[in-house]
């Protein structure tokens, strides 16, 4: 009887609480804006800033190489390309605002690159890199082909010594990356940061809902499927080793994947880009709403799963093409570990945070 | 309302089955597990003409996005004859060139709807030619131009690149999705499943006496039914068990598979297949009442496939419209969905309301819906409003036994 009264009493209290609640604030009480500020100021903008600087270095070394093709300038160009490609992995997931409008990822990292179209563009001199149909002939994979895929090192140097059209195309590709990224960074450093932070509500167009969806889309399609699943043959009848990222410099493929996964994990935990401090994050948000799954906090489960995926990937060969060709089972196991976090995040996390998935698998035609 | 109709069919079927016990003039209906029918141990099932026309449609469809194509050649793919009416060999597939069939000759050409309505038929046949010609004259010159309101060109749709006209419409989608209605559905529902075709001339007498067609192993009536079947399943690897690989062709077969994949409609693929199989079995058993009941079920279900997809694409298009309506580069997914939807709405005029000689939407009603879709502003789909897409969805769903929500995702 006492319990019964208590229940009624609690019922009345919660009823009255609901009544007096501000009717527009339907959220869970978590300070979404503080999280958005951490994301913008400590993660996204510093990451874009670093990426933008790496592209400036890439531009410089491209200029040096095309002005004076030699083994030394080629080596320096390749090294700066690696740094920039690696830096790209830290921002690719933030396809929101200007990056979304420009479809930055698709102009930066579509692979496999279309070498036939690249050869045609170079020989004809006729191309418009702003068109969607040219996405597979630009970006890092196309530059990769142009600096690794055209013969021996000496042959490449000789080619650029003699061919103005190769120089032009290579410079155009690097400039295009720099221009796109410059626009995105300028927008963040201009008005967009405030717009992003101000959209702190919980509807479908709020920054949290949108960016979590963008993050999830990236994790599922670009990271899990693009970097691991497609080469491993998950979506085809046979494995497709030539679909790895960084095909013309395959030794880089695993480290790009590692940086991408670490960046995703850091974003989940609100880890600052420039140091290892932690700010408000999805992980904290999950703890705030007390998200539990099978007796364990969801944030912990997701972090454990990130670690499982990391260790599965650490065991792979640095050259993922070689990995697929010699021991695809380990590649499949890495995929499985990445996939488990799709379930934990896209199902459990979205549900816990009351966020709706805003993308579907493409129709396929 | 549709439930009542289905119930009536069921009652009719049951009523008939119980009668047939003491009706010794008709043999029992033996329904095989698969779509396998034989006479003297030889298959009696044949629909090679339908397979041919589906393949012709596929080649036309894929050629519309080949920027080296010419208007003359694309029209030859549609007509399988030269502009002067001579023999043409436009196809990559030599077997198709050897055929005297064409896509165009069976567009809007059913006995029930168009034998005495050639005026509308010729307008519809010309619609396809206009879309084909416009693809070359409007879109091809803008292959390397970015699309924007009023400007034909290319636009990104995820990792795909699409090419649209000034209104944001993809002509190739209009042709392909339009053919689902004008060719496959019209021929199936309004021609080959119709008593006017099945019972033509001496078909009943011959089928009753099992007199086969000249040089063939099937009766003419059996063959007509199989021709309907062939427009739906003409490219499946195992024609006797087509539901194993729905999507074998890009026309109605693919979309039976898509609707089946929506849990709100799971089971519809089997209902369609079972109705085809029972209807064919009934012809073997000379039971034309059961045959016609199956034809009515097929009219309802195949019409639903088209209507569900029309609503699906209106709703998907609505969700895909960019938040910022001035971000023109982001329209790609919405324009693609709505172009597919345009073709499915166009196809509604070839659906068939069971128990009537009418489509669910007449040619005039379809044109009204399409005008509505393009009518919110100067630039067609670029200006379309959410409310318009909802209105169209509600109008379509209102004539069927499903909701916008069920079809929309």
What features would you highlight for this structure?
heterodimer, A: 365 residues, mainly alpha, A middle domain of Talin 1, 2 domains, two-stranded antiparallel sheet, 15 helices, 68% helix, globular, disordered N terminus, B: 409 residues, two-stranded antiparallel ribbon, 4 strands
Written account of the structure:
The complex is a heterodimer of chains A (365) and B (409). With 365 residues, chain A is mainly alpha-helical. In chain A, 68% of the residues lie in helices and 1% in strands. In chain A, α10 runs antiparallel to α11, α13 (298-314) packs antiparallel against α15 and α14 (320-326) crosses α15. Chain A is globular. The model of chain A is unreliable at 1-26 (pLDDT under 50). By secondary structure, chain B is mostly helical. In chain B, 55% of the residues lie in helices and 3% in strands. Chain B contains 17 helices and four strands. In chain B, the strands form two sheets. In chain B, strands 1-2 form a two-stranded antiparallel sheet. Chain B has a two-stranded antiparallel ribbon with strand order 3-4. The A-B interface holds A 100-103, 106, 110, 128, 130-133, 135, 205, 358, 360, 362-363, 365 and B 143-146, 154-156, 158-161, 250, 319, 323-324, 327, 329-330, 332, 337, 340, 409.
Largest sheet features of chain B: 2 strands, antiparallel
Shape of chain A: globular
The overall average pLDDT of chain A, rounded, is: 92
As an assembly, this protein is heterodimer
CATH architecture of the largest domain in chain A: Up-down Bundle
Topology:
The complex is a heterodimer of chains A (365) and B (409).
Chain A: H1 2-20, H2 32-67, H3 71-88, H4 98-102, H5 104-108, H6 115-124, H7 139-148, H8 153-162, H9 164-198, H10 207-232, H11 253-269, H12 282-288, E1 292-293, E2 296-297, H13 298-314, H14 320-326, H15 328-352
Antiparallel strand pairs in A: 1-2
Helix pairs in contact in A: 2-3, 2-9, 3-7, 7-9, 10-11, 10-15, 11-13, 13-15, 14-15
Chain B: H1 2-20, E1 38-39, E2 42-43, H2 48-63, H3 71-79, H4 94-98, H5 111-114, H6 118-139, E3 153-157, E4 160-164, H7 171-192, H8 195-198, H9 203-208, H10 220-233, H11 252-260, H12 268-284, H13 288-320, H14 332-347, H15 363-374, H16 386-398, H17 404-408
Antiparallel strand pairs in B: 1-2, 3-4
Helix pairs in contact in B: 1-13, 2-7, 2-10, 3-6, 6-7, 7-10, 7-13, 7-14, 10-12, 11-13, 12-13, 13-14, 13-16, 14-15
